[in-house]
Specification:
The complex is a heterodimer of chains A (about 475) and B (about 80). Chain A folds into two domains: about 5-115, no CATH class; about 130-475, Methylmalonyl-CoA mutase (TIM Barrel), CATH 3.20.20.240. Helix content of chain A is about 45%, strand content about 10%. Chain A has helices at about 5-25, 30-45, 70-80, 135-145, 160-165, 190-195, 215-230, 245-255, 260-275, 290-295, 300-320, 325, 345-360, 390-400, 420-440, 450-475, and strands spanning about 50, 55-60, 130, 155-160, 205-210, 240, 280, 285, 330-335, 370-375, 405-410. In chain A, strands 3-4-5-6-7 form a five-stranded parallel β-sheet. In chain A, strands 8-9-10-11 form a four-stranded parallel β-sheet. A two-stranded antiparallel sheet of chain A has the order 1-2. In chain A, helix 1 (about 5-25) runs antiparallel to helix 3 and helix 2 crosses helix 3. Chain B starts with 7 loop residues before the first helix and ends in a 7-residue tail after the last helix. Classes of the chains: A alpha/beta (about 475), B mainly alpha (about 80).
Chain lengths: ~475, ~80
């Protein structure tokens, strides 16, 4: 049986395991009591924050259930945020503001005890605005503009057409395409200019580069540029992502320059190098966005993305790279439009990925995480009365964050007809700031994400996505 | 409505910069590309050699040389 066939079976097997646990919780009294104890314990330990008017809000909103079968369905079927199978989130607290000591454990009146709970991750802005225009210095200026008030500098880079196709700016017929739709990069010197003024080795900096066909070459230029500015010791400190998703290019975007086998070999060469030498780098972003934007249904988007991801995992494992070395360095990228499926699509994807990686590839906890970047849907925006695109994008942003995406790009309303202008990209960035910082909804995580109807949709998406994958790959 | 487009002057500047880079590194680029082609043909991990080539070659020079060795992508449809 193919690897993908095995994955389909592992999901079915896991779903059966969950049903068995639910049944056992209802029939085996001791097991039921254990689950109830664990559940009450978990709830009692949730730190509480307060609204400005003093109303207490738990930092983690859990469903109000007290029946052991329902608790089993939640704990095994969905998992607490940050726990297998990660339906509710890859991490416990995601981008909540770091906890203040006065708030912690306020609920049960205990004094804060640092050692009693795992250290909380440092909160950072999940905002990533995809940018690239004209020459390196112009894009650099845009990067500085976008990050001037951010604690963390997370740059997301768009390249122009010639660069995406691995063609130099002096090649025949490309002159008018230089710097259009993205930044023109020909040499390491351009790369130095592109990120000038940013501290590439700092934990607060990362660069994402959206390029697949010539990705290993661009990656090498990025490393060369970093070495020129900060010396060779900077290499293991570099953080960021390069898209490098060849399957998606062949399936949807068509910016491929080498035959597929050669492309995959260059990709694997890069992954072997970066996962060993650059432990904080993501050398691939397995992308459904372009598949979705090219016209697939949302479920097809998830099914292709997941099966592409598992195919890469199979390939890297075949090269001899340990799954716990490459697994934590895979990242994902999905679309978020206004279709109903997007209410739960990313959540379902996260669960399928975790089960497949654990049960078929033998991956450890860090290699089970479906770490996700989301972009609001470009094809949902239209040129007529384009200011309405602000509302479309805002609704999509809410959906993306309800799905606990790890990072997010919000589209600029003027995109149907131009590379984003400063005026509209500013509003796109503000949209995220308003949602994340002004909106009280995000002081607590996931309130309202788990209505019965959402869960019903998640279950049906799960089975359709599995059926889609099964039809294609089971032998 | 203001559209963001790249002025011709900037496009020309990019072409001029590239010409200067290629001229400055001509000899080193040739040697790096030959070594890269060798590594690819031998089937070894080519990434360390890409790192060397990226210092002195342009994107198009590297991609073009790799295409000479492995061929070009042809859509399957």
């Amino acid at each position: 049986m193919s690897k993908l066939g095995q994955i389909v079976e592992s999901i079915e097997k896991y779903n059966k395991f969950v049903l068995d646990q639910v049944k056992r919780a209802r029939t085996d009294e001791q097991f039921g009591r254990e689950l109830l104890g664990r559940w009450n314990d978990t709830k009692a330990k949730i730190p509480v924050t307060r609204t400005p008017t003093g109303v207490p809000l738990p930092r983690l909103a859990l469903p109000e259930i007290d029946e052991p079968g329902e608790i089993a369905r939640y704990l095994f079927g969905e998992g607490l945020p940050g726990e297998f199978p990660f339906l509710n989130g890859a991490y416990r607290e995601m981008y909540l503001e770091p906890i203040r000591e006065v708030e912690s454990f306020e609920k049960n009146g205990e004094p804060p005890q640092r050692s009693a709970r795992p250290p909380l991750p440092q909160a950072e802005e999940p905002t990533r605005l995809f940018s690239g225009l004209m020459l390196a210095e112009d894009t650099n200026e845009r990067f500085h503009y976008l990050t001037q008030h951010q604690r963390t500098h997370r740059l997301s880079t768009a390249f122009d057409g010639p660069t995406l196709y691995g063609i130099d700016s002096d090649a025949d017929g490309v002159f008018g395409k230089i710097g259009e739709g993205g930044v023109a990069i020909d040499t390491v010197e351009d790369m130095v200019r592109l990120y000038d003024g940013f501290d590439l080795g700092s934990p607060n900096f990362s660069a994402s580069m959206t390029i697949s066909g010539p990705a290993p070459i661009i990656m090498a230029m990025y490393i060369a540029a970093a070495k020129r500015r900060f010396g060779p010791k900077v290499v293991p400190k570099l953080r960021g992502t390069i898209q490098a998703d060849i399957f998606k290019e062949v399936q949807a975007q068509n910016e491929t320059i080498f035959p597929i086998e050669a492309s995959l070999r260059f990709l694997t060469d890069m992954v072997e190098f970066t996962t060993r030498e650059m432990p904080r780098w993501y050398p691939i972003s397995i992308s459904g966005y372009h598949i979705g934007e090219a016209g697939s249904t949302p479920v097809q988007q998830a099914a292709y993305t997941l099966s592409n991801g598992f195919a890469y995992a199979e390939m890297f494992a075949a090269r001899g790279i340990p799954v716990d070395q490459f697994g934590p360095r895979l990242s994902f990228f999905l679309d978020c439009g206004l279709d109903a499926e997007y209410i739960a699509l990313a959540r379902v994807s996260r669960r399928i990925w975790a089960i497949g990686m654990r049960d078929v590839f033998g991956a450890g906890p860090r290699a089970q995480l479906f770490k996700l970047h989301t972009q609001t849907s470009g094809r949902s925006l239209i040129a007529a009365e384009f200011k309405n695109n602000l509302t479309r994008t805002a609704a999509e942003l809410v959906l993306a964050y309800m799905n606990a995406t790890n990072s997010c790009h919000s589209n600029s309303a003027d995109e149907p007809f131009t590379t984003p202008s400063e005026e509209w990209i500013r509003l796109a960035a503000h949209g995220q700031a308003i949602l994340l910082e002004e909106s009280a909804r995000y002081r607590t995580l996931r309130i309202g994400m788990r209505s019965k109807s959402t869960m019903g949709l998640a279950q049906s998406l799960d089975s359709i996505a599995i059926a889609t994958a099964a039809r294609r790959y089971r032998k | 409505m203001k559209l963001t487009r790249t002025p011709r002057k900037k496009q020309q500047l990019q072409v001029d910069r590239l010409a200067k880079f290629k001229k400055k590194n001509a000899d080193k680029a040739k040697r790096a590309l030959d070594k890269l082609a060798d590594v690819v043909e031998r089937g070894e991990n080519c990434f360390p050699m890409l790192l060397e080539a990226a210092e002195v070659c342009s994107l198009g020079q590297i991609a073009g040389r790799l295409q000479e060795v492995v061929g070009r992508f042809r859509p399957m449809v």
